[in-house]
Amino acid sequence: MTNHTVIMPTLLRPALLLLTSLPIASASLLAAYFYHRPLPLTSSRRLITKDTLSTSCTARSTSRSFSIVNPRNHITVPDSISINLLNSEIGDLTDEQILARFLQGFFGGWSFLPEKTLFGALRMVGRSFIEVGFTGLPSFILWLIYWDVYGQHKKGVPTDGPQLLSPSELSAAKLPEKYSKLFHGNFMVLDRSISEEGSKYLYGSKSENSASSFVDVAFGDDRRGFAGLHRLEVSRDDNMEQRGVTLCYSSIACNPSKNVLPFPDFVFAFHRWYGMCLFRDGVEMILRKWSDGLRADEDAFDIVYIIVQLRSVCIHKSTLNPNTCLQQRYLPIYCSAQNIT
Asked: Fewer CB atoms near the end CB (10 Å): N or C, the chain?
């Protein structure tokens, strides 16, 4: 039997190499763009990335969600991203409004679209990726304490909370209720907390200590091999008039059943890239929602000004409230047009 060796023509080799390299290069450029794409900020600043969680995640008063997701304190891979936003970029948004927009952009942007499509496809065949669920028992010791104090067994995390099937159902003004299930049960709002600092600042008062507001979105199951948590938080800086707020995204993933990593290292490298893309989507939603509202208010103010001009109505300076940036901007125009001193 004669063996025949097929020799590829010399000209086909560069063409084949080019055809295979073009998709890889395009995907790399696209990935780099989503990771580094510019945000609509009024001035340039950098995003801070760390391989640790934010301070609030490790504080005893605000770390309950992490103990529920990882009840046996197994090895985790933490990371966080943060950025400062100026007061001129967030306007008079409250902490809850900022977080609501943050959450809406985080799960409603282009970056989350492939995952959303996957969940929808699994739903069509009656399946889910990993339906979220937690027993709510941080440890055997705490279970004994609960039994001794309350005389009954501690129930798990409620699973009958409100259902939000699509990111489009997320509000831009209000956070979902605690224990709400998101996107066909693949995520759960495990906890949420709104600090009074944000509201106090809007009325001209502030305290020496800046507290943070946050929302915890959990995924996975503590009885299986994969679980994790996303925390989105906002904190008012001490020098609020100049620096505004700090937005932070913290995340962990773990294997609650065994004290090993749930995935190989290269998967976590992808997770960090993916987390940056989601974070940028969330920040962009905050800035875009505020700027859209600003433009709408300006347009409405322009219409009022035209009506006033046509009717030659004299508006006294005392009738305008100079506390908002829009009125401060248009106050000289009104006064100049009406010759008010």
From this structure: N
